[in-house]
């Protein structure tokens, strides 16, 4: 089908701001209107997502839909300012865009929303606003809960990715619109952005527990507000897998869940593989809900998931062995609970401990966590967890006997922990590993919990040293099959840095065996498993991108045995890429460092420096952002810098210093 592409369509908002859209639609849509599929994100359609957008939206247009990519207010070529994630202004703008699309003569009045990460978030959030023209949503790698399950906090613990992600947006928000589209006003728009650009981490650190700031945009506050069908998609290497299971459990609209082995990627570009023909799968969804065609997609299992087989631990996989399985409903009657208990001799066993047995004592080294990988893998570097034997020396470890039969798990393991501590602020990390016959340990799931949130994430309170407490720690959902001869290992630690920011001072944790248990979601295979299959990806990538400078992606652990200094250094250099159809060269380089010295909890710091460059023959702009996060026992300290250059001359510079009290974190 012939496709018409409009590069810069301007959509007016009520306050006069114009958003920029790129639109792909069938050439004859003016005579034969089609439904519109909207993706609404801040990641610069002109350059950064251009190649990826073509694989989705051009394909949709070739198959009877209009694909629309809109830059959020204040990003890319859109006017206005972007001041935070998921502001009400952003959602109101999205609602207005949907209304505008439904009125176009080439649109039949029906609109769907698709998005990964940010676009998956606001697809759910706008669906909860119930715009009449929005008929269905596909949400990929997103969440229903902005506090409990996002890049900022996990289990009430501050994530290292909070700093990383804030720094990414600090850099994005410093970039200008393209003068080839905006003409001479581009410079004015750019300087407005530079003046308004604040390090978002400052705001995020002001909200350390679940308050109204995080409730806004969390659709879990009222699942019933979503009245259109939802397809929820993620991968086991992604940070947002759990939301798929929660939405299947709590939404009441027609819904489907799809979980593959992938990282934070659309499944047609999914890594680790196998990738799937995701465009074809979404077309069946859109045909069902936007064209009223019976595609039989709703006759298929509610949940389709890739259950992974054992694999040697590695920080990067091209493919994960396993198989597709299906569940007609979720929670599934085919998943039952098997409970294991910690025992003497580091055993994980079916029988609970006696009440009079002594507790297990734990105080992990501060450096435990250097091999944990990233909270959310982007498959853009060696960012998956390494062999867990590197971490288990500083942990409490409990292990089963070798399995005499395969064991398949699907869902969220739950650790019921009875404990006491010697400090008023503490955390715990729990890891579940698949231990092979040769002893290599592959982490299959984990969870962290701020123990000061024992009464709820909205009720942090001081722990009383020496007093007994009980908490429930739900580990991330998993789909994994343990083979005969392998063992399950539960590892507990009081530190997991830099994945999670550590407590203010060293903590001695006593785990009370009587009252501590691990509940496993054991799955029985069914005949539905044989009905789940996907074709391999089949699409063109029509945007020609030439790699002028090679990328460099490194994760390096540095240890100085003389000073006891430890550092995780992350280099994410995308090199220089020439996008030929817009005559533009872009360069992205980000350097991250997470440092500590021995068990000095006041030595912890994270630093991110990002360079961004755009150039063509007569135009060259560059920005540099730097964010440093430090802490003492009482407060976090944020130091940030922003510099911008045009044609080699610095045109903007600003520094920030903020001190933010710690509130049981």
Q: Your description of this structure?
A:
Keywords: Hydrolase. This protein has 665 residues and is α+β, with helices and mostly antiparallel strands. The chain has eleven helices and 33 strands. The strands form five sheets. Strands 1, 2, 3, 4, 5, 6, 9, 10, 11, 12, 17 and 22 form a twelve-stranded mixed β-sheet that branches. The longest helix is centred in the N-terminal third of the chain and has 16 residues, at 88-103. The N and C termini lie far apart (56 Å). The model has no long low-confidence stretch (mean pLDDT 97).
Summarize it.
This protein is an alpha+beta fold and 665 residues long.
Percentage of residues in helical conformation: 10-25%
Shape: globular
Q: How many extended strands?
A: 33
**Low-pLDDT ranges:** none
Q: Mind telling me the C-alpha Rg?
A: 25 Å
Task: State the separation between the terminal residues, measured CA to CA.
Answer: 56 Å
Question: What does the secondary structure layout of this molecule look like, with pairings?
Answer:
Blueprint: E1 3-12, E2 18-26, E3 34-41, H1 50-62, E4 66-71, H2 88-103, E5 107-116, H3 118-127, E6 134-140, E7 153-154, E8 157-158, H4 160-172, H5 179-182, H6 186-196, H7 200-205, H8 212-215, E9 230-235, H9 241-250, E10 255-260, H10 278-290, E11 303-309, E12 322-327, E13 335-343, E14 347-349, E15 360-362, H11 389-392, E16 396-399, E17 407-411, E18 414-421, E19 427-435, E20 441-450, E21 469-474, E22 478-482, E23 487-493, E24 509-511, E25 517-523, E26 545-549, E27 552-560, E28 565-579, E29 584-597, E30 600-616, E31 619-631, E32 635-646, E33 649-661
